[in-house]
Design goal:
The protein is built from 6 helices and 5 strands. The protein is α/β, with parallel strands linked by helices and about 200 residues long. It has a single domain, classed as Rossmann fold. The chain has a 5-stranded parallel β-sheet, sandwiched between helices. Helix 1 (about 20-30) packs across helix 6 (about 180-199). The longest helix is centred in the last third of the chain and has 20 residues, at about 180-199. Bound molecules: flavin mononucleotide.
Length: about 200
C-alpha cells in the first residue's frame, strides 16, 4: 500500500478542548495505520486570519505573489495526499480562524483558478456541533453546511471529499446519561475517518 501523508488543519482557542482531543484521536489512529501525519494548529502557530491587501486575489493575474506566510502554508500542502480540517461549528459555520485560513491560503492561482494541486487530494471535514443532530436537521443546518462544503470542493475540482459531524459535543441532550460513553463514541466516530482515506 502507498504511504499516505496526512495534514490536519484545526482551529480551537483551547489546547484541552474536545476539538483538540478529536485531533489527537485522528492523529493517533493515523499513526497506527502507518500514515505520516503533521498538523497545523491555527491558533498556536500564530496564524493571522485577516485577509489584507497583499493576499487579495488579482483576477487578472493568477500568478500573483501573495504574502510569504500564504506561500509557505500553501507549500505545506503540496506533498500531502490527505487534508483533514477539524473545527467546532460556531454560528452554523467555520470559526473565523479557519475561514481566514481558507480565504488567505487557499487562494486564487494556488487552490483554484486554472489548475490546483488540491484537486487530486482526499479532503475530510470534521465539524463538532454543540447541539443535537435532530435540531441541526430541523433547521436545515446539516444540509446547508454539507452543500456549502461539498459545493466548495466541487468548485476546486476535488473529487474525493467528505464532511462528517460530531453531535452533542456539549453532551446535554436528553437521553445522554453516560457522558463518558458518549464522548468515547464521538472519538470512535472521529477515528473512523482514517479508514476512509485508506480505501
Ligand atoms: C462562538 C460560538 C458559537 C457557537 N455556535 C454554535 C452553533 O451555531 N451551533 C451549535 O450547535 N453549537 C454552537 N456552538 C457550540 C460549539 O459547537 C461547541 O462548543 C463545540 O462543538 C464543543 O467543542 P469544544 O469543546 O472543542 O469547543 C458555538 C460555540 C461558540 C463558542
Amino acid at each position: 500500500m502507498k504511504k499516505n501523508n496526512m495534514y490536519i488543519i484545526w482551529s480551537h482557542p483551547r489546547r484541552d478542548s474536545l476539538t483538540a482531543q478529536v485531533v489527537q484521536e485522528i492523529q493517533g489512529e493515523a499513526v497506527r495505520q502507518g500514515i505520516n501525519v503533521s498538523t497545523l494548529d491555527l491558533y498556536r502557530s500564530g496564524f493571522d486570519p485577516v485577509l489584507r491587501e497583499d493576499d487579495e486575489p488579482d483576477w487578472n493575474n493568477p500568478q500573483k505573489s501573495y504574502s510569504p506566510e500564504v506561500h509557505r502554508l500553501f507549500g505545506e500542502l503540496e506533498d500531502k495526499d490527505t487534508l483533514v480540517l477539524v473545527f467546532p461549528v460556531w454560528w452554523y459555520g467555520f470559526p473565523a480562524m479557519l475561514k481566514g485560513y481558507l480565504e488567505r491560503v487557499w487562494n486564487y492561482g494556488l487552490a483554484y483558478g486554472e489548475d490546483s494541486v488540491l484537486k487530486h487530494k482526499k479532503i475530510r471535514w470534521l465539524a463538532l456541533v454543540g447541539g443535537s443532530q435532530a435540531g441541526f436537521i430541523k433547521f436545515g443546518w446539516e444540509k446547508n453546511m454539507t452543500d456549502y462544503i461539498k459545493g466548495s470542493m466541487g468548485y476546486l475540482g476535488v473529487e474525493d471529499a467528505n464532511i462528517d459531524f460530531l453531535y452533542n459535543t456539549i453532551g446535554v441532550e436528553e437521553g445522554i446519561d453516560d457522558r463518558e460513553g458518549h464522548y468515547q463514541q464521538l472519538f470512535t466516530q472521529a477515528r473512523s475517518l482514517v479508514g476512509s482515506v485508506l480505501e
